[in-house]
Design a protein that fits this description.
By secondary structure, this protein is mainly alpha-helical. It has 8 helices and 6 strands.
């Protein structure tokens, strides 16, 4: 059965069985009964069956929803922009600078997370395209092969059976140039603008051996092309993951805050985080007193938690 424009598993399996039955019929006519039918298989069929376009579509839509949500928080974007564009807005000191660096890093980390998800979205889009084309191509291979055998058996008047298969001209380049944000508002059937083309597939000949040889060549081309396209997607995913993960690993978020920014540290003071409207000379002692009181209260709480009080 053709589902949403692509053949389902049963259709592909039946197509392969039909090809094998036709080859057996041709063997009887050519007195080649000693030959087994191990060649009469689609080497890429198992891979086709492993990639169900419907499953990929569901994954795509789930990732799409997540990606949209991550990019929909205008309030968060405005808050980040306000902090970053206004710089420190009158605040000064080592801890103030560390605070701004940390907020900027948090903003970038959120963007990197979204880029991770968009990269995953693009990969699902590409795999869907590959899966659909592979299924269609294998069905076309079966059709052309059956026609070629019918010709050889005299059941058709043509001397060769032709077919056309879809190919992705340069999937790696297309993925590199793809803007994943364009996938946020599209359905899976309009997911990726790849450079596609068609290649003629010729199966046939006047002799049994010629038909077998051309079938084996064409079926191997399909299998190799499918593997090559999937490897291209895998490599792109690995490159994206490495680049984004490296950025996260090198982020200031992975570094501890300076001691001057830690209210529990003896290095903390108002002079490390002070405002233009309140000079350190006026508020340094007040902040130090509040810090000492806070530590005393925390100490009491800790003692109670330990059962000392």
């Amino acid at each position: 059965m053709i589902v949403a424009g692509w053949p389902d598993d049963d259709t592909l399996v039946e197509a392969e069985s039909r090809v094998q039955a036709k080859f057996r019929e041709l063997q009887v006519r050519a007195w080649q009964l000693d030959d087994d039918l191990s060649f009469a298989v689609f080497p890429g069929l198992r891979t086709c069956l492993a990639f169900d376009p419907e499953d990929i579509r569901r994954e795509f839509e789930a990732i799409q929803i997540t990606a949209r949500r991550l990019g929909d928080s205008e309030e968060a974007e405005l808050l980040f922009s306000r902090i970053e564009n206004n710089t420190l807005d009158g605040w000064n000191g080592e801890a103030a600078i560390a605070f701004l660096d940390r907020v900027t890093a948090i903003h970038r980390a959120a963007s990197v997370q979204r880029e991770h998800i968009l990269a995953a979205l693009a990969s699902r889009a590409a795999v869907y395209q590959i899966a659909v084309d592979a299924r269609r191509n294998h069905l076309e291979l079966a059709r052309a092969t059956v026609s070629a055998i019918d010709i050889a058996l005299g059941e058709m008047s043509e001397r060769a059976a032709k077919g056309a298969v879809s190919v992705l001209a340069d999937l790696g380049k297309d993925l590199a140039n793809l803007d994943p944000t364009k996938l946020l508002g599209s359905g899976i059937s309009m997911l990726i603008s790849v450079t596609k083309g068609t290649v003629d597939m010729l199966i046939g000949g006047s002799e049994y051996e010629q038909i077998v040889d051309t079938f084996v060549i064409e079926s191997r081309k399909l299998a190799d092309g499918l593997s090559s396209d999937l490897l291209a997607v895998r490599q792109k995913m690995q490159d994206d993951h490495y680049n984004l993960s490296t950025e996260v690993a090198e982020s200031v978020l992975q570094q501890p805050l300076p001691a001057a920014a830690d209210v529990d540290s003896p290095d903390f003071s108002y002079s490390a985080f002070w405002h233009d409207g309140r000079e350190p000379v006026q508020f340094e002692d007040k902040v130090a007193a509040e810090q000492a009181e806070m530590k005393a209260e925390e100490s009491t709480i800790h003692r109670r938690l330990k059962g000392a009080l």
